[in-house]
Amino acid sequence: MIIRFITTLGIALSLAITAPQVARADAGEILGGAVVGGVIGYAIGKEQGKKQSSRSTTTRTYRSGIPSTSQGAQTQTALNYFGYNAGRVDGQVGGGTRAAIERYQASMGYPVNGYDFPPYQSDFLNQAYYWATSGGQAATQLSGQPLLFAYRQQVHSGAALAAAPQPQAQAPAPITPVVTAQPETTPTEAPTETASTGSLPSLFAGGTARPSLANRCSAVMLQTSTNGGYTTLANMSDPDFALSEQFCLARSYAMARGEELIQDIQGLTPDQISTQCAAFGDTLSPQVVALSLSSKADAESQMRKFALDTGLSPADLSATSKVCLSLGYRQDNMDTAVGSALMLVALGEPAYGELVGHHLREGFGVQERQDLAMQWYDASLSALDAGSQAVFLPSQTDRPQLLRAAMVQAQ
């Protein structure tokens, strides 16, 4: 089903689709200048842009990691679930929520300050909640703080988590042996060895299990808390860990930015948005695969051509990509996350190239390619040096220097 993009008039932000059912399309299929599949499209008018800019400088003044709307509600829900009693879930961070945050910080051994809730602390809490409600609680038969500590113990020990959240549409197919039909036999007969050789599976037929970035970031955040905070230029001793830490931190900021944009989407339910972003990832998956096979220049050029061929406005594709980047990370859907980051770079937002570099360095969603990762890192940091807008921790002015030093030392 073709998604039709409706341009917003005045200050209203809207989305529309031409039919209630959204069909999943083959990746990359183009028809009539529009992407077939689940691309969300919307345009932000000049007045809406002014409104967003004004709001960003007035109401979004919370400290790092303490959100004011849907993220606040998620944090309150998770705090209540683990027994820290944040009170009513309303998305507003007040005294009750801050007190609950401090109780959580104290129990985890973090610095106690309800006005400062760093991403590694909030992400660990929310990831533990997703794990617990996706089967972790049922598997452990624990509740409250003991359940949270069980999650921490599993992450710390490196054990496989019982129920890390995975998007159903993107779950890799299991490797299932192909069982050949056997002739009817008497109960005393057994299949011959020759007949059984046809049942050997192809190790590549069903795909391979994909590592979970959500689980990886949970482990990184736990190590960050053990270290007493984030790596800095002054104390960096492990450049690989510093890059992983910044990867997870950038992931947190990408998720937060997408949550902000989702608040302005009208006419679609969260499930519909999620479904469309999953299809967006399907559409971009060939471009994601090519990342491990092409230079940065070639991969970016191919994605730019793809974007032009859709016939959609850059504003539509940019806003769509930021929403889907957030959901891709939240649902551990790497095709959606990596494809969205690549699309944003192709649309002229080079700071998002840092994410592509991280994925290529660690092999999440793409084949690990350290050499290509350095191309993306260098281009992203060079753009920041030239005055491009920072999108991850813009207030941390020495972050580019930290990334560059870690890059050099990690080679």
What can you tell me about this protein's structure?
The protein is mostly helical. It has 15 helices and two strands. The protein has a two-stranded antiparallel ribbon. The longest helix has 24 residues. The chain is globular, with a radius of gyration of 23 Å.
Number of helices: 15
Largest sheet: 2 strands, antiparallel
Which class of secondary structure composition applies to the elements? Answer: mainly alpha
Order of strands, widest sheet: 1-2
Low-confidence stretches: 1-67, 162-209
Instruction: Choose one word for the global shape.
Output: globular
Oligomer: single chain
Distance between the termini: 46 Å
Strand content: under 5%
| Quantity of strands, as a count | 2
Mean pLDDT: 74
Order of helices and strands: EEHHHHHHHHHHHHHHH
Radius of gyration: 23 Å
Residues in helix, %: 40-55%
